[in-house]
Request: fold
Amino acid sequence: MRKFYFVTKNLLLVLFLQFVVSQDLYAQKDSFFTYNNNEHYRDVDDITAPGLPRTHGITDNYQSPAPLGNGLLVLSLLGAGYLVKKSRKNRNKKNNIKIIFWGIMILGLGFSTEAQNFYFPKPADNFDGNNMTVYGQLKIDGEFADENIEIGAFCGDDVRGRAMVMKNDDVYLFFLTVFGNTNDVIDLKFYDHSVGTELNVSGDYYITFSPESINLNAGVVNYHTIRYKFIGNDEDWNKVSNWQLVCDSWAEPQNATQLPSSNPKMIDDIIVAANLDATSDYIVKDVEIISEKVLTIAPSASLEIIGDITNDDVNALVVDSDINGTGSLIHNDDNVVAKVNCHIDNSSVTRNWNADWHFISSPVANQTIESFIPTEENYDFYSWSEFNSTWYNQKKDDSQTNEFYTDNGLNFNIGRGYLVAYENEGYRKFSGTLNNGDVTFPLSCSTDGEYVVERFTGFNLVGNPYPSYIDWEAEGWTRDMLELQTIWIYDDDVNNYITYTLGGVATNGGSQYIAPCQGFFVKAASAGNIVMTNDIRTKSKSSFRKVNDENIFKVRVNGASGQDEIAVVKGDNDDVFKMFSLNEYAPSLYINKGVGSYSVVYIDDEESLPLNFEGGFAEYTISLSECGDSFDAIILEDKLTGEKVNLQTESYTFIHSGDSNAERFVLKIAQSSQPEAQSNFAYINNGEIIINDINGDAQIEIYDLMGRRVYENADAVSNVSTYGFSSGIYIIRKIDDKGIKTQKIVIE
Reply:
């Protein structure tokens, strides 16, 4: 951690920092400054500061060498400062981080610069009091810093200022406002915008200043925390004129000259004095919402509040939602009241399992289930019983006899998922105290329930308990009891389950990020508690892949009633169980291994896999949705018609009658040779395929990309003529005493 400490006397400073990314400025430093001895500043090590030690430890305090008296604070520093890492070999070696200050001025309110000799170019006419100007360069490991660098000022954990970045030609401008009180120690820290973390330099550092002069005097300037106040006539966060700067010591608020927290790495206090929409990603310290005003987090936005939330009205803080997603609110305060909107599509069919079903979960405490029960006659609300492998309806009316009815007068269980469908598209509103902190939810794994179905054993419907997205890949989960590190979410857009497995393998567009108000299945191997903590919360919505893409291919089927997808991965891991659609007409693809049905399978050197298909009477198309370089050809064989297609070059369209045999297809896989285990053994020369590296009795087979064998020869010593072969890609298979090797070859 790098720290600069200043002790101030009722100090109010405004720092205007220009970090110049051109080495040319450094080369021209002699032309910038002339000193009172009319000598140029040629070597910073030749200058020492009167009244101050030349070198300070990083934890030292800088104090005025002169008595503090009435008057205005004046600081003139001209020279250079280095952040230096101590070493046993050379304690004065400058390495890792270098900060060069070309000139610094701090002026008191109303103080005239013309009456003082600061040995600095005369500032512009609009250069008024309380300004510090720094022209300089920042290097990290010898490289110039760029706009990713941010400076924040802290007094302990209290934020006293932070730097915004703007660009003016080749100069990056950082504006920093710092407030201090008597004997306050101000800690300046550098941050990296790109990752949102403090720049942490390990080791023991100290600061060396070589200034011409340092003079401190102090006047009286009251200190209070500065805050941004939203006063806009519209809800636009990104309009500067909508903001004011306020401080308890100021008679009147000041108009803001920059936006608060327009970059997600910034920190400010916010007062919401007019209706405000957060439409991007923001991080703020404290938020106060004035009575009858509303702060809304847009569906595409996120707001992280690291401090306190002052809000007395459940309708004043809103997390909004639309068809594309839901906003994220990350906070650490207990007893925060808010409203979270959950967008739910409508259903096109009634009273059957073919509706647009949704898994939902409550982000607030004590939300009644009754307020979410569909009022339409043919629509229902269910909870899932792992013990009986059964959906329990929370709704009952005179026209319905439901053996699995439960009382609907209860509240949502925090951490539980539910199933619902509505006739009309719209918003369902969760209102109350937002969930915060650890959430524990019990999982069961039953084998003796009255209606238990073996393939559903261990499946528990859990829910996201927070008003933010959560990350399945994050630290902060307790889930050792799970049989698979997989989540299953029902997606009405595809009329099927989407899956995501720890490590990056997904089907049907599954993601590691689970939305607010979203329920999801997990499969337990034994009973236990799944625990979620604040550490799993995130603003992210877009998934990234960790799996090695060259070792995976995916096969997808599309039809009018939905889509489904299977993934085949080279590697060693547990296969992912297939969960079938709630819609009986939706298409289903899965691999049947005899002991179960799977949507994700892991293979070694398999050459074929049974591909099962189920669906209603309709036309469907099977295609490759993804294919890594480890696979030379993926051949789909239709056992009903005898047709074969290479899915790498074309898709396959067919008619399914609805009652056709599910075991209709076979996938034939041609895998690429592994360089370390299978070097090339064949090449083409003068119209012949030359076969090398033969051990004992051998056989050569050649296949086209349709999977058809076009050549077979038990005498592998002989070369193979390319005459009669069409131009294209072929797979050569060599079988000898060392085993089987395959190689792709191109005949032109």
